[in-house]
Amino acid sequence: MKVELAKLWQEAVRTEIPGAVEMRHRLHADPRISGQEEDTAVAVTEAIGCGPGKVVAGTGRLIDITGVGPRVVVVRAELDALPVVELTGAPWRSGNLAMHACGHDVHLAALTAVVRAAAEMDLPARLVALLQPREEGTDSGARDVVDEGWTADWDGIVAAHVQPQLPRGVIGVTPGPVNAATAELTIEVTGRGGHSGYPHTVDDSVLALSSIVVALQQLGSRRINPVHGCAMMINQLNAGSAANVVPPRAVARGTIRTMTVSDTRLAEAAMRDIVHHVAAAHGCEGILVMHPAEPVLANDPVYATSAGLLLAGLGHEVDSSWRSFGSDDFSHFSSVSRGLMMFVGTGSQTGGLHDASYLPHDDDIALVADALIAGYCAAVG
């Protein structure tokens, strides 16, 4: 029954694709950044044509589409764009200082095609569309949807994300962890400042911080099980106001990414040891502050296995091992409900995620749509 439903739905979606492509172009040409997505939410809601829905997380929408019975399956797409100046040269490129450089315009167009086709079908469980705000922002829209209590009656939630690191047309559907838990970190080192001509009278905060940054590279190779993996990057350094003045304070910021809760705890403890002791060895004081962002995104194994088989039956090449140390706030949903995040390959020739040149093909809308169909069908059992 799932296979027949998926094939009928796929066929119905194909009639919606021309309109979805046109909508994708409109959204791409006039994007909105995190927290300012109201115009985008209204445009997509009107295109779906199932009423205004419920306002969630400030600028998001939760829209009942069709289906009967007590079970509820949600399909999710993200509303927001990034503060990036577009360099694609597309005729429908962004006309403002934001850009859909992460493919959210493709996701929204695909979701619209899927739910419009579904509105004319008899589905075995309620289908609900979630237009989620602030996926790109530090103030997660997904976390707000969870905190507002909307997930209480959900049986499952599915989503798909374009991925240029997968070959074009390949769909990653992997059981278990697929995206890392992330936390932002701030390291502050303080010591005696002074004149660089008298190094014996100062405690060099810059040298101490530099040593800490180098020592932290041991996390992935020495402190965390290499089978699990860990990605720790320091991406910002700030210190000093003049070339000949040793500053009393130096600050570094970065991120840590792990695939298990136990590794997150282990990494934090190891980083605190390194920061404290390396700073002390230079006569300074080192403080680490952690800012947890997203939990591990883990796919429901049953959903993933079933969706992979359905996608293969729909004619797609499936990769059941794709994982990355990227993150997505969809993980807040999969932490409280059965969830499935799939990755639709767009190929490296389209550019990279968050890059000013990233431009998936319009044909990728249909691929994302098929992934959402397979996800729903897998969720209804």
Shape: elongated
CATH superfamily of the largest domain: Zn peptidases
Query: Could you give the count of β-strands?
Result: 16
CATH topology value of the largest domain: Aminopeptidase
Classify the helix fraction into a percent range.
25-40%
Spatial strand sequence of the major β-sheet: 1-2-4-3-5-16-6-15
Order of helices and strands: HHHEEEHEHEEEEEHHEEEHEEHEHEH
Number of helices: 11
Query: Sheet bearing the most strands, described?
Result: 8 strands, mixed
CATH architecture group name of the largest domain: 3-Layer(aba) Sandwich
CATH class of the largest domain: Alpha Beta
The parts where pLDDT drops under 50 for at least 5 residues are: none
SSE layout:
Blueprint (H helix, E strand, L loop, with lengths): L1 H13 L2 H13 L8 H11 L5 E3 L3 E7 L5 E7 L25 H15 L7 E7 L8 H7 L8 E8 L6 E3 L3 E4 L1 E10 L3 E2 L9 H12 L1 H6 L6 E10 L5 E2 L2 E10 L2 H21 L3 E10 L2 E3 L1 H13 L3 E3 L11 H4 L4 E7 L18 H16 L2
Parallel strand pairs: 3-4, 3-5, 5-16, 6-15
Antiparallel strand pairs: 1-2, 2-4, 6-16, 7-14, 8-12, 8-13, 9-11, 10-12
